Task: structure prediction
Amino acid sequence: MFGYDTEALRNLLATIIQNNIKPDAWAWLSNQGDITNTATFNAAFAMMPRKTGKAVITITPEQAQELNTIRPGFTIEDWTADRLGRVYLLSQANATDKERYFAVIENLFLAAEMNELVALYSALPVLAYADQWVKRCAEGIRSNIGSVLEAIMYHNPYPAENLSEAAWNQLVMKAIFTDKQLTLITGLNERNNPELARILMDFARERGAAGRSVVPELWHLASPFTDAGIVNAVKQQYTTI
Amino acid sequence: MCCSHSFEDKPLPGQKPEAFDITAVKGMKFFDPHVHMTSRTTDDYQAMADAGVVALIEPAFWLGQPRTGIDSFRDYYSSLVGWERFRSSQFGIKHYCTIGLNSREANNEALAEQVMEILPLFVYKDGVVGVGEIGFDDQTAAEEKYYRLQLDLAKEAGLPVQVHTPHRDKKHGTQRSMDIALEHCLDPYTVIIDHNNEETVKEVLDRGFWAAFTIYPFTKMGNQRMVEVVKQYGSERIMINSAADWGISDPLAVPKTAALMKLNGISAEDIELVTYRNAITAFAQSGQIDEADFGVNIDQSAKFEGNSILRGGQQPRVDKSSIIIS
Ligand SMILES: [Zn+2]
Result:
């Protein structure tokens, strides 16, 4: 059900959290995570900031390195304590009963406020049954809330590992439309593809016709799959801008 | 909030009103503790931000027509803590909400039961500063039942209560709302009685509750009357709100009333209390309000003008005076 060493991840996250929240908050959090009691699990998820606070966590370079060894691509740097606490809580959820596991977590998505959504989408790379969350991830990309999009797009290995080509291309286009920093998207070059290049070139023409500009990364993504002459011709539209 | 009166038969004000001069309240900060932004446009958000509104509370209420299923309630509550909060943040306004089952829809008992089941999923969420707006409308037995159940929920969650008082048989309904809150052992200092008027305010204050006044054209308080109320009762435990919604209402009611108070010689200190500080004091008992979060994006707006780069969701400003839309 998991594609990584869950025990090692839980232990490491536990160490990091203990270093970043008060002892009484940890005493509370370490007793949460039983998804057979849905009401308590939901309440723990919702009230996380009241317990952990919202300060930005500190993490040592060694811990970051270890995290990347346990779950490649997964990073928690610059997270707030409540975000980490929520992801830790989710990592504690017993996944043996697949149906319940999915239903409880999906239900959190349906009732989530902004910061909860950020935590939930951040947790995708460490949830069990990775292929079960593909639709949910694509749904998140349809969001218009900036911080939610960033949680999916930035330093998150889940989309590149699991999304179909069409959904991936939507992610890249949404990132461009919402002025996100493309360089922070995990797997941007690895998942680059001819269909995306076609969409990007059409977009570049449309923007040029409207007298608007495009981000320079667009040319970088389109070039490997596009005739150099065509790229240059479209680029010409922008010389006067 | 929630008035369903028709406006056709209401006389329009006889003479042209004085223009609202925003400079009268320049530099002042406002907190509107009751406004239904879901029904308002981005122009309203911009105007509120420009007039100094730095934070607001959106109480959960009905949508002008009854919902027919539980999912409509869930989506509504989740929009109050999700999409609407984001929309507000784009204008540098901190958005809080209160969560509850409104009195009108409490009368659909089958649905009300289901709503009571999902309320605990929302009341503990970040930025939920109370249970509200709850209370009486027709003053039916069903309304009383769910009012009582939600008072208990507020007590358990450690949240203040925002009480909607009825339009019809108002004075009696207000007294009953307070009697029941005390019966459930709520500290009146954690209960905000809303939509007061000259007839209800004295008892509300005497019994230790907070008295909120809604400045809403035709059906509730006009702000000239509000000035007189503050002159008579002072500023202790009194707050004003716009309750702007999908009816003819005014999201600038709080700053406008502050301006009117200033013109009428009410002290700056009293104006600050009734248009900002008292609402914070009352609802911060939830532990969910931090003034450091107010208006954090406001100063950034300048650097986005004429610039297509957006950060943190801040909206670029649209020049309304220009015929060009780019
Ligand atoms: Zn209302």
